[in-house]
Amino acid sequence: MPAPIRLRELIRTIRTARTQAEEREMIQKECAAIRSSFREEDNTYRCRNVAKLLYMHMLGYPAHFGQLECLKLIASQKFTDKRIGYLGAMLLLDERQDVHLLMTNCIKNDLNHSTQYVQGLALCTLGCMGSSEMCRDLAGEVEKLLKTSNSYLRKKAALCAVHVIRKVPELMEMFLPATKNLLSEKNHGVLHTSVVLLTEMCERSPDMLTHFRKLVPQLVRILKNLIMSGYSPEHDVSGISDPFLQVRILRLLRILGKSDDDSSEAMNDILAQVATNTETSKNVGNAILYETVLTIMDIKSESGLRVLAINILGRFLLNNDKNIRYVALTSLLKTVQTDHNAVQRHRSTIVDCLKDLDVSIKRRAMELSFALVNGNNIRGMMKELLYFLDSCDPEFKADCASGVFLAAEKRWVLQNPTINAGSYVRDDSVPNLIQLITNSVEMHAYTVQRLYKALLDDISQQPLVQVASWCIGEYGDLLVSGQCEEEELHCAGLCDISILCLNPFYSLLVSSRIKKVVSIYGSSIDVELQQRAVEYNALFKKYDHMRPALLERMPIMEKTATNGPTEIVQTNGETESSALDSKHPPSITQPTNQANDLLDLLGGNDVPVIQTALPTKPASAGGELLDLLGDLSLSGGPTPAPAPSVPISQTPFLLDGLSSQPLFNDTAAGIPPMTAYNKNGLKIEFTFERSNPNPNISVITIHASNSTEADMTDFVFQAAVPKTFQLQLLSPSSNIVPALNQGSVTQVIRVLNPQKQQLRMRIKLTYTLKGAPVQDLAEVNNFPPQSWQ
Amino acid sequence: MIKFLLMVNKQGQTRLSKYYEHVDIGKRAALEADVVKGCLFRKKEECSFVEYKDYKLVYRQYAALFIVVGITDNENELSIYELVHNFVEVLDKYFSRVSELDIMFNLDKVHIILDEMILNGHVVETNKNRILAPLLALDKMAEG
């Protein structure tokens, strides 16, 4: 059999291949040759074959049949064989293969080999791919090598120890004695790897951390020597002496000095020295300065030093080199929490970076900008950010849009519905956005018009459709024509949302077109659509009198905790008063933020709807307009007001849990109570509350008290209002007004005043006092202006 | 720590790959293609650090060859940038004016150099003479 070709030949042949198929053919041929050569157990050419196999492996072809061959090579005595064998082991094997355990013995022998290079090889391989069993077996050997005086071996042993510690953390103590004089080495390689080893140990165990704190002075001294020493050709990189070691030491100092005052103090001088003396014209110097700044920020440094660090970062930001600007933005992001004001000074530069061509820089600048938004600069920042949102790449839009909403939420300023990014907004922002829109009452008209226009343009973006259809449904009366609704229904098609937008209909204009569309969905395949369609159909057909109440506006939703896109930057350096104190009574259960699906928000959590959906009384009782002069028997009266929990079986979503709700809101908006009637010992006082969900409703509670000596029994209170108002009387607390002001009867009146006219009321009182029935009429005109405005 | 080091040419062919954290063989090709796509199409003015999945890429271009290093978040990016240059200088010293062909035909030697410089994702040695010492000894042994 001819001698197998050398690696070079193979490479040359492969290079001549013109197509992928040709290359594959060549490789397969060669693989076959190699396989037969392995079978022959040919020692001389094994090395060559494995080298070729490694090359083919790098190109992506399977090479697992060479694993055993690698082991044979490792066991050989020739250094060249061993070299390739170990290389093959590192590339082809890992701890998942069973074969690797066979290496353990070989490595053990090689760790005690006479040639340092062989020992180095073994250390290298063990350090790269040793499994936990191997590490446990060989940890002793590694530790021994850590103590030798041979610097070549020592540095490799140190890194091998790092690997052992990672795999088997319990063995950390074993290496502790060996670390004692690691730092007194002169050899930079050993120093470097020792610092890495110390870093690893400190990161893993707080005990070690405290133990190694006493090394801080030594580290400081080494660093000082590095800076102060003149030109040393050995480690010089562009005029700076061993920058890699400097960076490593700085990192270790950072870990040691964190939250420890003494160590931090010891480091202050050297950090200041490094910061001021390092030359910044080349990248090397900047690398060291970067590490220094990170260290200063993390330890308990004095304020002068911190200011120095931020200034360095500021200088970085103005640098022409992109890399440096990127690095500066990254570190500013880390420090914006603690040194907010200092970072604010560089705000304009950061905002400029938004316009940079580089993607990485843009992303950093965007995150940082969101972190810097606060009450003062919101307008300017929002302008910039919205411009950025329009012009940025799609991958940014999601985060940017969500960030904009988050920032807007915090400041209660919705400048401009960001329509274009609608499709990219994350799902959980949708409820937040809706909340925001309901809260900015004055913007409703503008918002809904913009959204409708956008929807006409592009119906495909789902979050946008959700938000838009909800708004249009809610505030449809602010849109110009009633036609819009129907067209949109047709467009929305299969989307569940189409049912949503039917939901809170304005006014009693139920056009036939809508009824038709709804009945179409009554037989749709999707269960949810079908159910809702049927429900609405029923609603349209039978319950006309309830529809207005059901279909009133949604109340303003209470804010819930939001998860923003950048969780790191939640507090913009200002104290956030808990914006969650909202005006609503705490008894309303809040929609949790898992309600990503808008349907849940309106369907499953029906609480806000209930507030205003108190059904007007059946037939003509109560809810109807009253004639001023006559027929007062219709208002209130002894008929107990039906409990608000009228069960409507077909629409369980909307009216579930009605009975559990309080009837009115508790916010006394500071409207002073008034005495409506005071005659013959009977005094009637009105106290006012403003019903929050709907500012047109005033809730009046009457308190009737009796100052005579006898009880007033069969007490009935009736009221009438002018035609422009609607009145609703709820049941009184009792029919007997106890004597001598021992108690009072309360009754609740709800007045709907859509036209905000002056409230006037006529009241009729009937009661029995000392056996004699008493009846009286009175007019109440002295309502305080706040009650009806 | 360093997760991997790749040398890829402009056509997307991998010239050297070293992984310090295990990646399945099947996934490696996809990873390399992805990484290359990310770096090859960046313009000259863009910075050398790219955010990729949950780690960062530091890349540097030398003629037709891209050297890409994948690092975790806690590494100093500028330092790794320097390290790449150091590596190329070592290669330059050994091969005297190194070119892509040199790397291709002497892949095993390049691996040896790399192993002397980076072990298990951390930097071992940056001094050129000390890095090349074992390799020169190996060459002498092979001749003799």
From TrEMBL, chain A:
Phylogenetic lineage: Eukaryota, Metazoa, Chordata, Craniata, Vertebrata
Biological processes annotated in GO: intracellular protein transport; vesicle-mediated transport
Record membrane topology: Peripheral membrane protein
Compartments in which it is found: Cytoplasmic vesicle membrane; Endomembrane system; Golgi apparatus
InterPro entries for the chain: Adaptor_Complx_Large_Subunit (IPR050840), AP1_complex_gsu (IPR017107), ARM-like (IPR011989), ARM-type_fold (IPR016024), Clathrin/coatomer_adapt-like_N (IPR002553), Clathrin_a/b/g-adaptin_app_Ig (IPR008152), Clathrin_app_Ig-like_sf (IPR013041), GAE_dom (IPR008153)
The entry's keywords: Cytoplasmic vesicle, Golgi apparatus, Membrane, Protein transport, Transport
Chief location of this protein within or outside the cell: membrane
Family indicated by similarity: Belongs to the adaptor complexes large subunit family.
Domain GAE residues, every copy: 669-784
Pfam families linked: Adaptin_N, Alpha_adaptinC2
SUPFAM superfamilies: ARM repeat, Clathrin adaptor appendage domain
GO cellular component, one term: AP-1 adaptor complex
Descriptive protein name: AP-1 complex subunit gamma
Gene3D superfamilies linked: 2.60.40.1230, Leucine-rich Repeat Variant
Domain of life, source organism: Eukaryota
